[in-house]
């Protein structure tokens, strides 16, 4: 089976969060199980690996902006072929910018003809999030079968309809309520949802949640229809268990048994000058979605019983709020993303807070449990699907009080050393490998390939 993944980021070449992690792990596991896998992503200026240019030239594709100098670079690792599409729009440091809808529209126009130039013909094209929505639409209009994964429905790639029609190069017939039009805008997330043969989300609970007005981001009606048509499902993300393995982790004092974790806790205390209280940590993008404002508001209560360590960056207001607390003897804030420090935090903390307002899947809670660190999580999305009641501590309300109460319950349990140790041992034994999810995806692809190409209902003018 020839599978082509299209995504805006892929670890270790480019990464801002969980999407990059998924694209760094899932394709490699698919290749191990016998698929022929290619990953296509933008050729960012920050990519430092020895990518080999394999094609360069203009591409004649519809659209108001000519694609005159397109570069395709190749890199093979772990049985996966990585192709990077170079465009002027991506020749700047960093991944994401305010003009991303325009940038990824150019990327979306370039992907299929670039694949043709280098001789890659997919059986199934698998697009990830709104940045690949246009590629999915163009694939379906070209007669290819496509799967589309929603990693975060909140970000949709919307732009003014008048501009977007010309940018995409798609026929006028797709810019209707049945197609890409959304409240007077072009919506590239909707493009993926409408044109894919199958749509997946990254956890079963999130697949249910997004069919409701609370979580559907205005697309819940369409998602309900996809559910009724049997085209929407949730496949839980896995975890790269080689990258996140406390037994072999070079960034910590490795440990395989819970007793070895104590050295990591002592090292983390020494690094941040913390006292003997247990450590509650989080490693997160600083955003309201992640509930980081709830964590800050709960700090007066949390610091009565916990040391609190936060690693992350994002919303300047949340960063400023954490900096104000950084002088507190029981609070340590490290701004930005620092992977070696993240490993030390996962290994050295006792508990891990994730008060997310919504969480499509989440990887941090899986990593924390793998390192014997018990999660305190809000009951939403993938946190419901991955944190058993007998291991972690779950709470319902998206409020500082609900978070503080759950952390208080965790603190009481911490004092029962036998109970805490039993929970931590159970956490470390959980299987979050990619093997099961990978087989689910390959089965989904097989069903897509064995069925008829879905008709363009309501899009006949395309």
From TrEMBL:
What Pfam families has UniProt attached to this entry? Glyco_trans_1_4, Glyco_transf_5
Tagged with keyword rRNA-binding: no
**What are the TM regions of this chain, as residue ranges?**
none
Q: Which residues bind ADP-alpha-D-glucose?
A: 15
What is catalysed by this protein?
Answer: [(1->4)-alpha-D-glucosyl](n) + ADP-alpha-D-glucose = [(1->4)-alpha-D-glucosyl](n+1) + ADP + H(+)
Q: What SUPFAM superfamilies does the record tag this protein with? A: UDP-Glycosyltransferase/glycogen phosphorylase
> Briefly, what is this protein's role?
Synthesizes alpha-1,4-glucan chains using ADP-glucose.
Query: What is the protein name given in its UniProt record?
Result: Glycogen synthase
